[in-house]
Write a structure and sequence with these properties.
Helix content is 37%, strand content 21%. The strands form three sheets. It has a seven-stranded antiparallel β-sheet. The protein has a two-stranded antiparallel sheet with strand order 1-2. A two-stranded antiparallel ribbon has the order 3-4. The radius of gyration is 26 Å and the shape is globular.
Length: 292
């Protein structure tokens, strides 16, 4: 917002830089005499107060989330292609820091197409320095997601990002397919990869299943192998089954709804292991589900 007045310019006369020693009582007396200067003073502050009130009302309205302007326009996402009466975005998303590109649609680990909902960067801080580990794209089955998340269709992206109820439905619903595609930006050894995921998963699995959760988590992370920069790790959650694919190896399935839930909770829970910024960036395109 451009400045309309120098901070050094006196409001009621005097020279620039000169200290104004007039008191509040003096200003009030001046206004009682009806001077133009005081009219200007009170007009200025009244206008400033009105602007502050308007801004507060605007942000209060925005935080409510559901707005008439919540629906996205197809212009935001490319020309689009119509499928089952809805227009799928065709424009890929690029994670801005790593410059990693994710396709607007992908098959995940089966033949069904999934729609890209958002991309994010996972960083790890070591001795105060952030290291880029992987870029991640989040895909969903749009038909099932549209049906399950219908109550959120009029929310703006900003409203959804702060709505934990929305994240909870995304995490807990088994009625639509979800895919996390991790594209690694640096090489990560098998042991480090296993330790990283075990740390977040074992706590969640233990809370759901007790000691049995430990055994399932251990079996799950044993599938992980060394990954090199440029390779992918894909997690697909569908109907209570989670599948994991490490680079070019065959996918491995685990029939555990608790494990599927825990994996999604790492990204979308109330206290996401990956951080709030990653969590919010991964749902950027959800309003695109309802473009026709």
């Amino acid at each position: 917002r451009p400045d309309t007045m120098s901070m050094e310019e006196p409001l009621l006369g005097g020279k620039p830089g000169e200290k104004d020693n007039s008191s509040t009582a003096g200003s009030i007396l001046c206004c009682l005499k009806g001077t133009d200067a005081c009219s200007f003073t009170y007009g200025f502050f009244a206008g400033a107060f009105a602007i502050l009130v308007a801004q507060a009302l605007f942000w209060a309205f925005q935080s409510n989330g559901a707005t008439s302007g919540g629906a996205a326009s197809i212009g935001d996402y490319g020309d689009g292609v119509v499928r089952s009466g809805y227009r799928w975005p065709t424009k890929p998303m690029i994670e801005p820091i790593s410059k990693k590109k994710f396709s607007a649609e992908a098959k995940g680990l089966n033949s069904e197409l999934n729609m890209l909902m958002g991309v994010a960067l996972r960083q790890k801080k070591v001795v105060g320095v952030n290291f880029k580990v992987y870029a991640v794209g989040f895909y969903v089955d749009p038909v099932g997601a549209r049906r399950t998340l219908r109550k959120f269709r009029d929310y703006s992206p900003a409203g959804l990002k702060k709505n934990q109820e929305f994240y909870d439905v995304v995490t807990n619903a088994f009625s639509f397919r979800k895919v996390l595609e991790l594209s690694f930006l640096r090489s990560v050894g098998r042991d480090k990869l296993r330790d990283t995921f075990n740390e977040g998963l074992v706590v969640r699995m233990r809370a759901l299943l007790g000691s049995k959760g430990d055994a399932i988590t251990e079996e799950f992370i044993s599938v992980f192998e060394d990954v090199k920069a440029g390779q992918k790790l894909i997690f697909a959650m569908d109907k209570g089954v989670i599948s994991v694919k490490v680079h070019n190896k065959a996918p491995v399935k685990f029939a555990s709804s608790e494990l599927a839930h825990s994996m999604l909770d790492l990204y979308f829970g109330k206290n996401p292991t990956v951080g709030e910024e990653v969590k919010e960036n991964l749902i950027e395109r959800f309003p695109a589900l309802w473009i026709k």
